Amino acid sequence: MTPSPHPSLYVAPSLDTALDALAERGAEGAPFAGGTWIMRAPIRHERLRPAYVGLGRIPELTRIEVGDSHVSIGAGVTHARLAEALADAPDLQVLAEAAGRSANPAVRRAATLGGNLCTSGFAAADLVPALLCLDAEVEIRSREGTERLALKEFLSIRQSLHPSLLLTRILVPRSPARSAHARLPLRKAGDYPTAIVSLAVTSDDDGRVAQARIAVGSVEAVARRWTRLEAALAGAPLDAGTAHRLATELAGEFTGRDGVEAPGWYRVSVLPALVRRAVAALH
């Protein structure tokens, strides 16, 4: 029998049935939530999976719980809902801005947090650097149990995870930090960003930087923390001009990725300006 050219879609009514379905389908299956990346696979000349497991009817995956010590966000939460839920949280502004300014309104209403984190081929994901600078953790479920990982670790292994595993929740610790998100699209708001800088800064009683957490996205294949710049800012008053100068001195540690929308050298060259913009936004 000739296989069908069209993928099958099983809409799971619960988390347990979704995990069962993913385990049964193995490498031939994949989760389907917002679908904004999967539906464009033919445009990228990528093969669709033969089978998908729909997650849209699972209540656990669409919950947002904002507490005093942490925020729990289901992997099925859309960018639009996330931006709305976190709009009044100063320490989480970086995540609210990343969610509320990514892509365009239509995509933000469909694209999910889990999809943004799991799509390893999408280097320009806004939510990844935002969550990195917030020290987020991810929760992964299988039929055997639950595992929690630092986001940095998850990003390093996401391509090799067994297909029966499912990202279900993201946990973000609360802090007294102020945060901001700066991105540079080339032409218009709907473009993928050429470079992204996300930061969260905690100051001491004298107004000096007690801790800075800075993450860079879209410049390299995988977003990462800018630890040398974090260390350079610590102990001094937070100033946009100083941050720009230090970022200029340290930007050479990045190797920009070449793409149809921008060459690698350009992505690196705009980082200091984005750092300046993000620091200025904190004031």
UniProtKB/TrEMBL annotation:
Entry keyword Oxidoreductase: yes
Pfam families: CO_deh_flav_C (PF03450), FAD_binding_5 (PF00941)
Domain FAD-binding PCMH-type per the UniProt entry, residue ranges: 1-177
Key words, A-Z: FAD, Flavoprotein, Oxidoreductase
GO molecular function: FAD binding; oxidoreductase activity
Coiled-coil residues: none
SMART domains the UniProt entry points to: CO_deh_flav_C (SM01092)
Protein name: Molybdopterin dehydrogenase
The organism of origin for this protein: Ancylobacter defluvii
